[in-house]
Specification:
Immunoglobulin-like; Neutral Protease, domain 2; Serine Threonine Protein Phosphatase 5, Tetratricopeptide repeat; 3 domains; 22 strands; about 20% strand; binds ligand BES; binds zinc ion
């Protein structure tokens, strides 16, 4: 059920003054991706005590859950998937009855625990499955150093339930603490405050690290990594964790992060999470970045050596406001996380590098959006900002629509009211709804009330309903112009007219200008022309992952043989789904490429994260048993 405007207004008044509202004050939007019934009993705090076994690929231990109960409720429903549960008890040690429901392929299982009168704490003793989707266990050979195994988690969207038995819905915020017992010599890190920087060693060859996060978060943000990690300080409240061999390069790449935090605070109010650190993961990390609180998880493929791909850090940092502070209540409203964040990402980069730079980012995003809309259909429901993901994997919502149509909507609002008013409004929005879930309906109601107070004509001009509940790109979308890209486009015209690559004016181009150039090259290019481009600009040897990716797509499209070893290397040396999936897709679309794709995939599939291999399995029609 969606809150009606009337209900939404009630929610607004109920929460208006509270800083962190009592859980009971929060009304829960119906989440089709969770079994939980938070109105009856809800989890407010999770305390983990977990020991990883790198041989067996399991986490074993306990989760102590603090519960808040409504009168009359006699059982709590948790989300789980593939957990082996050995017991559920009260803190006094009394065993509790529990039952595990049928395994839904998307939702996993409901774990129902009978609660004795007045019980407000339960302890679940359990073990994770070796193929738990949130966990990737890496052999030493899959790390940069090659010395130690590595483990990391990825909770978003609904994978936390594969390693933590809790109510796994973004509308059910929980604080958490943890003890993680790793083999001595290994470092554990989490999206929380590290209370024991040196760890506590014990006789059994393990070191225990303790963590705590006092701010309530949606469970998809509970995150853990363990491996051979070192820390380098960057600024007073920022630093980087990475394997020893790359930690200095990472610290240098992210040198601007403190300036990013300052810029974001000037725009949208205080950073409320204490520290902001970045963890650089091994190359199989399936995403570019993940905004785990206090500790962004990032792919090493953004270490370009020239700080040219750090807008990704601005993006993950921006989630400290949009997403982590004010959170989509359900995955249908994913755009409230990603659209706001993409808008803020560009604003932060504009503060750091200026308008021209930010406009290049906006233009590339707009191009992604136009391609996505034309791919899925200009009238397709999946081009609405608010999605209908019931019965589907919420990852289906991870398209350019949530990101770039969402950002375009905020740009349209900005054009109507001006930057100053929008900035003030957003600062108030983050303040008002800090640590609370948000729905599209609630946002529109709050915007109409605060930003358009009384000005119905202005509210009508932004067409919120069309943007959120309608398809495609509404006609008040701002035209994005980039002066830098206009210069690139003139060189493209010259190239098309026969100017040899060496005579193109590319001297001061940055990564983004190159991306514009590569994306706009003609679909069909002769091998002679590709060779000339490659000889002049060295694309096949590029150390920049985004440029390499754009070039490899062109190489596949035109069967440019000299790039094939680089393609194979790119597909086997990192597992970022955004790069991996389109390349297999491009290969599979050609007669010569389909067998090449299957041959490479057969060799490297096991090194990919399940998030990436599940997508490629579908692209290649791969039988998971292996063929
Ligand atoms: N929160 C997302 C990643 C995500 C979304 C993971 C949905 C699982 C489900 C993160 O903030 C993100 O958007 N990452 C992007 C990079 C960004 C610069 C667009 C990515 O990983 O490509
Ligand atoms: Zn994001």
């Amino acid at each position: 059920m969606k809150p009606t405007p009337f209900l939404a207004a009630l929610i607004l008044t109920a929460c208006a003054t509270a800083d962190t509202p009592a859980p009971s004050a929060v009304t829960h939007a119906e989440d089709s991706h969770s079994h939980a019934r938070p109105a009856e009993v809800r989890v407010t705090h999770v305390a983990l005590d977990l020991t990883p076994d790198f041989e067996a690929r399991t986490l074993t231990g306990t989760a102590r859950l603090a519960l808040e109960r409504a009168a009359g409720a006699d059982s709590v429903i948790l989300d789980v998937e593939g957990l082996t549960i050995s017991s559920i008890t009260t803190p006094a040690g009394d065993a509790l009855d529990f039952g595990i429901g049928a395994d839904d392929p998307i939702l996993g299982q409901a774990l129902t625990v009978r609660l004795p009168d007045a019980a407000d704490t339960i302890i679940v003793a359990y073990r994770t499955a070796p193929d738990a989707a949130a966990l990737q266990w890496l052999d030493p050979a899959q790390t940069a150093g090659g010395r130690m195994p590595f483990l990391f988690t990825q909770g978003q969207a609904i994978l936390t339930r594969t390693w933590v038995p809790t109510q796994d819905s973004p509308g059910i915020r929980q604080t958490y603490e943890a003890i993680i017992r790793v083999p001595s010599g290994m470092q554990a890190v989490m999206s929380a405050e590290l209370l024991t920087p040196d760890g506590v060693s014990s006789e059994d060859g393990r070191t225990a690290y303790r963590f705590r996060l006092d701010q309530p978060i949606p469970p998809y943000l509970i995150a853990l990594a363990a491996g051979n990690l070192e820390f380098r300080e960057i600024g007073p409240r920022s630093g980087v964790w990475a394997e020893p061999g790359i930690v200095d390069a990472a610290a240098d790449e992210f040198m601007e992060v403190e300036a990013m935090i300052d810029a974001a605070e000037r725009l949208y109010g205080p950073y409320r999470w204490g520290r902001y650190d970045i963890l650089v993961l091994p190359p199989s990390f399936p995403f570019g970045g993940m905004e785990n609180p206090r500790l962004t998880f990032a792919t090493p493929t953004i270490l370009a050596g020239d700080r040219s791909l750090v807008s990704l850090v601005a993006h993950e940092l921006a989630h400290s406001w949009s997403g982590n502070l004010v959170t989509n209540a359900v995955w249908n409203d994913f755009w409230l996380n990603e659209g706001f964040t993409s808008y803020i990402e560009a604003r932060i980069m504009e503060e750091l590098r200026g308008r021209d730079y930010a406009d290049m980012l906006r233009q590339l995003g707009r191009q992604d959006l136009e391609e996505t809309i034309s791919d899925i259909g200009v009238n397709a429901p999946d081009t609405h900002l608010q999605l209908d993901l019931a019965g589907r994997n919420p990852d289906d919502g991870m398209t350019s629509v949530a990101y770039d149509k969402g950002a375009a909507f905020l740009e349209a609002i900005e054009a109507e009211v001006g930057r100053e008013r929008l900035d003030t409004f957003l600062r108030e929005y983050f303040d008002e709804f800090a640590f609370q879930p948000m729905t599209s309906e609630q946002f529109v109601q709050y915007m109409n009330q605060e930003l358009f107070a009384g000005d119905d004509a202005a509210a009508a001009r932004v067409q919120a309903e069309r943007w959120i509940y309608g398809p495609g790109l509404p006609d008040n979308a701002q035209v994005v112009r980039s002066a830098a890209f206009e210069r690139v486009d003139s060189q493209l015209v010259a190239f098309r007219a026969g100017t040899p690559p060496a005579r193109l004016e590319t001297a001061d181009w940055s990564t983004h200008e190159w991306l514009r150039f590569l994306r706009a090259l003609p679909d069909t290019i002769s091998n002679a022309q590709l060779t000339a481009l490659d000889d002049t600009f060295g694309f096949t040897g590029s150390g920049n992952s985004e440029i390499m990716f754009a070039w490899l797509r062109i190489a596949i499209r035109n069967r440019y043989q000299p790039a094939m070893p680089a393609l194979e290397e790119f597909l086997s040396s990192q597992g970022r789904r955004k790069f991996i999936a389109p390349l297999y897709q491009d290969l599979a679309a050609t007669e010569w490429g389909a067998p090449v794709a299957r041959e490479i995939y057969g060799r490297v599939r096991s090194t990919y994260h399940p998030i990436t291999s599940n997508t490629v399995d579908q692209i290649l029609d791969w039988e998971p048993s292996g063929r």
